[in-house]
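Notes to self, 2-nitropropane dioxygenase:
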Amino acid sequence: MQPDPFYNTLRLPVFAAPMFLISGPELVIAACRAGIVGSFPTPNARPIETLDAWMRDITEGLAAARAADPAARIAPWAANLVTHSSNQRLPQDLELIARYQPPIVITALGSPKPALEVVHGYGGLVFADVVNIGLARKAAAAGVDGLACVSAGAGGHTGALSPFAFVSAVREFFDGYLVIGGGIADGWGVAGALAAGADFVYMGTRFIATDESLAPEAYKRMLVDSDADDVLVSDCITGTPASWLKPSLVANGLDPANLPPPPGRNYDSSQSFAGKRWTEVWAAGQGLGAIRRVEPVAAVVDRLEHEYRQAARRFGGAPYPVHDARTAVATDAVNHPAGATA
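result:
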């Protein structure tokens, strides 16, 4: 589908994906002010009073930004809600969702059904975070407005499908909003995802090493110093397959080649962070090779837009004849090198 008018509120068709222990109000507000969807997982805010304060800060901060510059393109924000049966705080989270009315709610690790009535009641959109075709079908049948298809290469809890295969399969039965994520870290990847049939891109790891993220400085530096070969997928930390930084595993006394068995899954947001292994081990997706420095969110989005416009210009030219496509691509690369101004 062509996501209009929602699409037209964005500078780029990108979600700064909700990242556990990383995304907070400052990152959400910075992303929205830069023209992309800012989001955060509600379990990041503990106890429930902290979640109340975070949602208030986001709504008031974005309202102030719009009042200060009515012509600015301020993107909508999203709350990521864990609907797994182990989350005892879900009813309280939903109460705050109803009060602060985030334009988008992204459900994860469970059925989207608990959020649908509340969010649709105030006119918001519900996106379901899914990692395979079966879950995508269930979420579509439940009546979600969009699907966030988490593919191979994603940081944190990840999927196993190629993003291209995922998009193609889901488009056979779903014509709502489609977000695709998994190793996409530059504007060229954004353009490729849209060309493949997605409406938006989920981009998480690229925003960890920003001034506004909650990540410790050592975490940000590890991202700058690492590449895709330093990522390992394992369920040993949370009980669900996730992408972890090998140097972080080693720093926590774990052998990447001999990891312990997975624990039972528990996503109860009412519990304290204290003593949880997953607070000390750091995650990343396969796109971390695009991270060269720690910088503000606005600078990242500026670069993404520049790369995206380069890619769009490339697609906007005359179609390449099939018989000499390789020659045409090579010629275009010479005439329009990656560093050229869009």
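- The first strand starts at residue 14 and ends at 16.
- Confidence is low (pLDDT under 50) at residues 320-342.
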